[in-house]
Amino acid sequence: MARFDLARLVEAFRRVAGDEVADLAGRRYGGSALPAEQWARVFAVFGPHIPPEDQLARRVQNLSLGEPGMALLRRLDVVAELKRITCPTLVCTGDLDPVTPIEAAREIVDALPPGLGQLEVVEGAGHFPWLDRPDRYWSMIRRFPANGRQG
């Protein structure tokens, strides 16, 4: 995303997982803490496939940066800066991604200089499209740099 939009994010969670999970996501991304079991319900709908525990365990985390980082994310708005990009840009999202929904990806492409942005929506994929649809995702990624545009 190029701009944090809590209402858009909550609506995307609602489309994917219903009102209850959308409410939990809204509370968490809005700044409230959630118990681990409630956050697990939100994280579970990031996509059809979630990285396995052994992969998640390899992440380097600094938990003291979590809340300050989220506070910065809530103020994120770099849409106006996207016009400064000068190279072809691939913007990819899964159609089931509640964190970075299609509307957020489209906002990026629309803010780029004309002809530079290419939006690719991976059907059946969530926030981790390389896990959900690896053949589609990786073939798209491989083709884009070679062609400058997938076309």
Notes on the protein architecture:
With 151 residues, the protein is mainly alpha-helical. It has 2 domains: 6-74, no CATH class; 79-147, Rossmann fold, CATH 3.40.50.11320. It has 8 helices and 2 strands, in the order αααααβαβαα. The protein has a two-stranded parallel sheet with strand order 1-2. Strand 1 (89-94), helix 6 (102-111) and strand 2 form a beta-alpha-beta unit. The model has no long low-confidence stretch (mean pLDDT 94).
In short:
With 151 residues, the chain is mainly alpha-helical.
Oligomer: single chain
Stretches where pLDDT falls below 50 for ≥5 residues?
A: none
On the 0 to 100 scale, the average pLDDT is: 94
What is the gyration radius calculated from CA atoms? Answer: 16 Å
The tally of domains stands at 2
Biggest sheet architecture? 2 strands, parallel
Approximate shape:
globular
The helix/strand series, from N terminus to C terminus, equals: HHHHHEHEHH
Number of strands: 2
Task: Give the CA-CA distance, first to last residue.
Answer: 23 Å
Helix/strand/pairing category: mainly alpha
Walk across the major sheet and give the strand order. Answer: 1-2
The number of helical runs is 8
